[in-house]
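Read as chain and fold; for instance:
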Amino acid sequence: MKHLLSGLALLAVAAVAQAGDALSLPPLDTYGFVSGRAATEADVSAGDAVFLFKEDGLIIGQPLDIQVPQYAVFRGSNEAASGYVIIVQAEQAAGVSVVAARFFSDGKVVTGTPEEFTLLGDMGQPLEQ
Protein backbone atom coordinates (compact mmCIF):
# COMPACT_ATOMS: atom_id res chain seq x y z
CA MET A 1 0.00 0.00 0.00
CA LYS A 2 2.86 2.40 0.85
CA HIS A 3 4.36 1.91 -2.63
CA LEU A 4 0.97 2.46 -4.25
CA LEU A 5 0.51 5.76 -2.39
CA SER A 6 4.04 6.88 -3.30
CA GLY A 7 3.36 6.01 -6.93
CA LEU A 8 0.11 7.97 -6.89
CA ALA A 9 1.88 10.95 -5.34
CA LEU A 10 4.54 10.86 -8.06
CA LEU A 11 1.80 10.73 -10.70
CA ALA A 12 0.19 13.77 -9.10
CA VAL A 13 3.48 15.69 -9.26
CA ALA A 14 3.96 14.63 -12.88
CA ALA A 15 0.41 15.75 -13.71
CA VAL A 16 1.07 19.19 -12.21
CA ALA A 17 4.26 19.52 -14.25
CA GLN A 18 2.46 18.47 -17.45
CA ALA A 19 -0.35 20.93 -16.76
CA GLY A 20 2.11 23.79 -17.16
CA ASP A 21 2.75 24.54 -13.49
CA ALA A 22 6.33 23.29 -13.53
CA LEU A 23 7.33 22.23 -10.05
CA SER A 24 10.75 23.54 -9.15
CA LEU A 25 12.37 21.26 -6.58
CA PRO A 26 14.61 23.09 -4.14
CA PRO A 27 17.63 21.09 -2.96
CA LEU A 28 16.73 18.74 -0.10
CA ASP A 29 19.34 20.38 2.10
CA THR A 30 17.91 23.88 1.57
CA TYR A 31 16.96 23.78 5.24
CA GLY A 32 18.61 22.08 8.19
CA PHE A 33 17.08 18.79 9.28
CA VAL A 34 17.31 16.07 11.92
CA SER A 35 17.45 12.48 10.71
CA GLY A 36 17.63 9.13 12.50
CA ARG A 37 17.71 10.55 16.02
CA ALA A 38 15.81 12.75 18.44
CA ALA A 39 16.26 16.49 18.13
CA THR A 40 18.30 18.31 20.75
CA GLU A 41 18.07 21.86 22.09
CA ALA A 42 21.11 22.68 19.95
CA ASP A 43 19.23 21.45 16.83
CA VAL A 44 16.28 23.71 17.64
CA SER A 45 18.57 26.69 18.35
CA ALA A 46 20.41 26.13 15.05
CA GLY A 47 17.13 25.92 13.13
CA ASP A 48 17.72 22.29 12.16
CA ALA A 49 14.78 21.08 14.27
CA VAL A 50 11.35 22.59 14.78
CA PHE A 51 10.26 20.92 18.00
CA LEU A 52 11.62 19.01 20.96
CA PHE A 53 9.99 16.19 22.94
CA LYS A 54 11.19 16.67 26.49
CA GLU A 55 9.98 15.44 29.89
CA ASP A 56 11.52 16.25 33.28
CA GLY A 57 14.53 17.75 31.53
CA LEU A 58 15.19 14.61 29.44
CA ILE A 59 14.76 14.29 25.69
CA ILE A 60 12.19 11.55 25.11
CA GLY A 61 11.64 11.78 21.34
CA GLN A 62 12.28 8.81 19.07
CA PRO A 63 12.71 9.10 15.29
CA LEU A 64 9.84 7.90 13.13
CA ASP A 65 10.52 5.46 10.30
CA ILE A 66 10.29 8.25 7.71
CA GLN A 67 13.07 9.35 5.37
CA VAL A 68 14.32 12.80 6.41
CA PRO A 69 14.75 14.97 4.43
CA GLN A 70 12.33 14.25 1.61
CA TYR A 71 9.74 16.00 -0.50
CA ALA A 72 6.07 15.80 0.47
CA VAL A 73 2.68 17.37 0.01
CA PHE A 74 1.09 18.73 3.18
CA ARG A 75 -2.68 18.56 3.34
CA GLY A 76 -3.79 20.33 6.49
CA SER A 77 -7.34 21.11 7.56
CA ASN A 78 -6.87 24.66 6.25
CA GLU A 79 -6.61 24.64 2.43
CA ALA A 80 -4.52 27.82 2.50
CA ALA A 81 -1.90 26.01 4.58
CA SER A 82 -1.49 23.15 2.10
CA GLY A 83 1.31 22.70 -0.41
CA TYR A 84 4.67 21.23 -1.32
CA VAL A 85 7.16 20.88 1.53
CA ILE A 86 10.49 19.38 2.57
CA ILE A 87 10.24 17.11 5.62
CA VAL A 88 12.88 18.26 8.14
CA GLN A 89 11.97 16.25 11.26
CA ALA A 90 9.81 13.25 12.21
CA GLU A 91 9.56 12.00 15.79
CA GLN A 92 7.24 10.36 18.27
CA ALA A 93 6.92 10.34 22.03
CA ALA A 94 4.25 9.20 24.45
CA GLY A 95 2.10 7.87 21.61
CA VAL A 96 2.17 11.15 19.66
CA SER A 97 3.76 11.29 16.19
CA VAL A 98 4.74 14.67 14.73
CA VAL A 99 6.26 15.59 11.38
CA ALA A 100 7.78 19.02 10.72
CA ALA A 101 8.35 20.48 7.29
CA ARG A 102 9.09 23.72 5.46
CA PHE A 103 7.09 24.99 2.48
CA PHE A 104 8.88 25.26 -0.88
CA SER A 105 7.28 28.66 -1.45
CA ASP A 106 8.49 30.59 1.59
CA GLY A 107 10.31 28.28 4.02
CA LYS A 108 7.62 28.65 6.66
CA VAL A 109 7.29 25.79 9.12
CA VAL A 110 4.34 23.44 9.36
CA THR A 111 3.83 20.55 11.75
CA GLY A 112 1.27 17.81 11.55
CA THR A 113 0.58 14.14 11.92
CA PRO A 114 2.14 11.72 9.44
CA GLU A 115 -1.31 11.23 7.90
CA GLU A 116 -1.39 14.89 6.82
CA PHE A 117 1.64 14.40 4.55
CA THR A 118 1.86 12.55 1.24
CA LEU A 119 5.49 11.47 1.12
CA LEU A 120 7.23 11.83 -2.24
CA GLY A 121 10.73 10.61 -1.37
CA ASP A 122 13.87 12.29 -2.66
CA MET A 123 12.62 12.46 -6.28
CA GLY A 124 16.12 11.48 -7.40
CA GLN A 125 17.70 14.58 -5.84
CA PRO A 126 20.93 13.71 -4.01
CA LEU A 127 21.95 15.54 -0.86
CA GLU A 128 24.88 17.93 -1.25
CA GLN A 129 27.02 16.78 1.67
Notes: The first strand starts at residue 54 and ends at 55.
